[in-house]
UniProtKB/TrEMBL annotation:
GO terms for cellular component: plasma membrane. Its main location: membrane. Pathway: Porphyrin-containing compound metabolism; protoheme biosynthesis. It is found in: Cell inner membrane. It is a multi-pass membrane protein. The keyword Cell inner membrane applies. This is Heme biosynthesis protein HemY. Involved in a late step of protoheme IX synthesis. It holds the Pfam family HemY_N.
Amino acid sequence: MVRLLFLFIVLGAGLFAGTQYAGQQGYVLISVAEHTIEMSVTTLVILVIAALAGLFALEYVVKKLIYASSSTWNWFSVRKMKRSRRYTNEAIIKLLEGDWKQAEKKVTRWANHHDMPLLCYLVASEAANGMGDRSKRDHYLELAAQQDNATLAVELTRAKQQISDGELQAAQSTLSALQQQYPDNTVLLNLLKQTYLQRKEWQALLDLLPKLVKTKHISQQEADALTTTAQQGLLESIASQQGSEGLISHWNGLSRKQQAEPQLVLAFIQQLIKRKADHEAFTLIKENLHKHRSAELYSLLAELNLADRHPAIVLLQEALQRDGNNAEAHSALGQLYLREQQWQLAQQHLETALSQRASISDYAYLADALEKQHLTKAAHEVTRKALTLLESA
């Protein structure tokens, strides 16, 4: 538009000058080396205008050609990108269907033309991992890592694959390094939770749970359940490493709320029994039975290896006076009488327990009590019942 306006101005100026100097065309001489060119001023003006018009026309043609070439190139590029997207979508479907080979083939075919090659390489890595080809899996992850802003997606994918392959230590290292940059990423925190659970890293799990609740990744109820699981695991770990003294010291350091948790109390008592701290276990059972009557606690009484079983027997007798239908108390008392070689009393309490609920172990104890009294036929009948119960379990 500007160029056309310029040409009109030049033409207008030429027409004006032409009318003013009509009949006075002037004379122009151009000498270059041995060549000379002669023309009037009017002719020169016309040639200049024609030259400008030619230049403008040439510019227009060149621009049109460049634009056409660019449009053609863009058309091919867009076509390739659309095809790449289509293959990637199909590859994702194949990945979800478990067709790893087709997923890898489709997603890598046009990956170079995709507007987000990171996605292509991550899908290819997952497909290779599904086929169990770790070399290809890692190769695709390296290609993905070369893309812009790829760190989080690549490392999370790597950690997931390591967890699925059982490489828990490597997964934990990957996630721990990533956590420094992305401390509140929910996917990362969830993967850490899985890793800690599988590796039995109980203290690390306990430290992580408040953050999981804060980010609303898990509810408080789920956190409480995981806390109990972690504390149970921690009790077992400390007992195996530090013995009963270290176990008791750790227990004393817990909060009152945790010490009142029935599952933790049971776990603590079981670890005490395993570490031959039966006297401490009995004291704890006795204290907790005064607070709440638990079938599990009554069962644990029968597992104690006490030098003097009389206090435990008295405790169970008192419990049965309050509730004669306490099957676990009958069972525990029958087992203690069995150790005291009081066969008839043992038989009586074990039969009462079995009349209220079936138990393979109680059938075995009852058969033993009957054998000791030379009631062989009855003992065989009890054994058959135990076997029938075992087969139906």
